[in-house]
Amino acid sequence: MLKFEVNILGCGSVLPTTKHNLSSQVLNINNHLYMVDCGEGTQLQLRRLRLNFNRLQHIFISHLHGDHFFGLPGLISTFSLLGRTSALTIHAEKELGAYLIPILDKYCKDRPFELMIHPIDPEKHEVIWEDKTVTVYSIPLKHRVPTCGFLFREKPREPHLIKEMIDFYKIPVKELQLIKKGADFITPDGEVVANKRLTKPALLPRSYAYCSDTAYNPEIIPFIQGVDMLYHEATFAEKDKERARQTCHSTAIDAATIAREAKAGKLVLGHFSARYKDEAIFLSEAKTVFENTQLAGENSVIVL
User: Fold this and answer.
1) What value, to the nearest 5°, has the Cα angle with vertex 65 and ends 67 and 207?
2) Engineering a disulfide at 11: which of 1, 71, 239, 270 sits with its beta carbon 3.0 to 4.6 angstroms away?
């Protein structure tokens, strides 16, 4: 089975603590690595999780609050020191360049790789990147600055060939790709072998949505309907829901309500405020609304 893993590098909010790093994740989809957000300390977490720096080709930044992107200059500097040559693309609101480029021009001017900033519109739900493995969509969120989440959808895979049937009919190699695309096979004697006898369906494509930071926003539900796993911020517990409203953040119950209404397969909570000594309160509150919930944790790997 092809990999679809979410590596949690940081799931705290605003202030780094001895318990939580700032927001960052790395998705491993079929051995392609995609980073989502890059708070301070991210490159240290990459080493702790033994993730290969050079396989990281794309970074997606949700918004321009420091706890989600201040790790970029250090990470890019390290790429240069390691002699990276492959291009790196950062997908972010266009204003990121005004912050990042002057720093890099001063301290990483001679980097041996191309750095591209691909601007995204945080107010639109649209395709912002795709390759042969995955399509990535933006999800407009509701925060104090322009913010978007990201939806990663695997592309459908071709059906699997049934080796025993291929061998039995001695089907030439040149015919196999046509069969994968749905063709029947005609034997030298003129017998038509139906495609369904030669193939079995591939596994259904998997999907993952990242929604941080945001106030409770049911407008995103159509964009993430039926997602296999939803990561949604839960900065505050219910007793602090007024503070959540004031700061455009969510409570655990807000996140669980979104997961329930979107019919998500699993909910992962993160972006925890440093004011809480025990995050069990988030889990217990969310489970009253959406049972299949778990807490994010640094250095954890969640497999879809």
Assistant:
1) 75
2) 270
Which single residue is written with the structure tokens 């001063």? 106
| From 37, 67, 213, 228, active-site residue | 67
What pLDDT score does 181 carry? 87
- What is the rounded CA–CA span in Å between residue 187 and residue 152? 41
Considering the entire predicted model, what is its pTM?
A: 0.90
- What is the average per-residue pLDDT within 125-139? 96
The three-state (H, E, C) secondary structure of the chain, written as one string? CCCEEEEEEECECCCCCCCCCCCEEEEEECCEEEEEEECCCHHHHHHHCCCCHHHEEEEECCCCCHHHCCCHHHHHHHHHHCCCCCCEEEEECCCHHHHHHHHHHHHCCCCCCCEEEEECCCCCCCEEEECCCEEEEEEECCCCCCCEEEEEEECCCCCEECHHHHHHCCCCHHHHHHHHCCCCEECCCCCEECHHHHEECCCCCCEEEEECCCCCCHHHHHHHCCCCEEEEECCECHHHHHHHHHHCCCEHHHHHHHHHHHCCCEEEEECECCCCCCCHHHHHHHHCCCCCEEECCCCCEEEC
**pLDDT tens across 41-81, in order?**
999 999 999 998 889 999 999 999 999 999 999 999 999 99
List residues bridging with 268 in a β-sheet.
231, 294
- Please state, in angstroms and as integers, the Cα–Cα distance from residue 131 to each residue in 4, 35, 134, 203, 212, following that order: 15, 15, 6, 19, 24
259 vs 118: CA distance, rounded Å: 30
Closest CA to 99 of 151, 145, 53: 145
**Which pLDDT score, from 0 to 100, does residue 1 have?**
65
- Is 67 marked active-site? yes
User: CA-to-CA distance for 266 and 204, rounded, in angstroms?
Assistant: 16
Can you give the length of the chain in residues?
Answer: 304
